[in-house]
Amino acid sequence: xxxxxxxxxxxxxxxxxCHGSYEQGALLTCRTLPGADVTLxxxxxxxxxxxxxxxxxxILGFSRDAAPNMTLRVCAPGNACASLPLAIVPxxxxxxxxxxxxxxxxxxxxxxxxxxxRKSSARKKTAFAAKTIxxxxxxxxxKPVENARISGFYGSQRVLNGEPKRPxxxxxxxxxxxxxxxxxxGGVVTLADPDLYFxxxxxxxxxxxxxxxxxxxxxxxxxxxxxxxxxxxxLGRVGATGRATGAHLHWSLKWRNRYYVxxxxxxxxxxxxxx
Length: 275
Ligand SMILES: [Zn+2]
What we know:
By secondary structure, the protein is mostly beta strands. The protein has two domains: about 1-85, Immunoglobulin-like (Sandwich); about 95-275, Glucose Permease (Domain IIA) (Distorted Sandwich), CATH 2.70.70.10. The protein is built from three helices and 21 strands. It is globular and about 65 Å long. The mean pLDDT is about 90. Bound molecules: zinc ion. Zinc ion binds near residues 170 and 172. Zinc ion binds near residues 152, 168, 170, 172 and 250.
């Protein structure tokens, strides 16, 4: 009994403090003990593991279809654990219909197109698996293009040429071809490819904490693989390359190479507890 009491006094409490909205597609900024092991799970068997950094910081992302009840378990290096139930608010998604896409960008692909699709997806897979070290996220996120009409929303159910397709996992900014795209936060370029099949001219930017921005349909690229960029630096130009009906920037944000979160959540990220 005495030993147990001593252990309880000796183990620091790993209960995290988190800020943000508990909603599908959202992001939370959290702080706990340095190096703590964090597990986000739900009753269906979903599990995502994160390690808090040397300052005890971590960012949690919820998927588009996150379960209404999740569990956050945080264990300090000394084995003391804290378990928190999380109630996740559902997000109301839109239905977007896009017609007039070339059939070769929706279904029925030629062997050459299939080879291009396979090559593109291999490039993306490798880039998403790359882990770079960056604290760039600490300066927060701003929009990659200014004064744009938002023409596509995160999570929308997509119907392309009348065929129901996978949901739209990013945010579309309708701006003319040639508009400069700036880094919404600093980071390291993990992919810069002028010609992916569906995405067209594409840049991946790893901001640290497992947050990777993807910019698509670009008409020109101003950065290279491995390049470190600062917030606000020009990455390239808006275009209509890949599967696009008109000039726009598609920006998506992947969390821990698990799923896409709402870029809007990054723009609203409360980083004050992490600084
Ligand atoms: Zn889009």
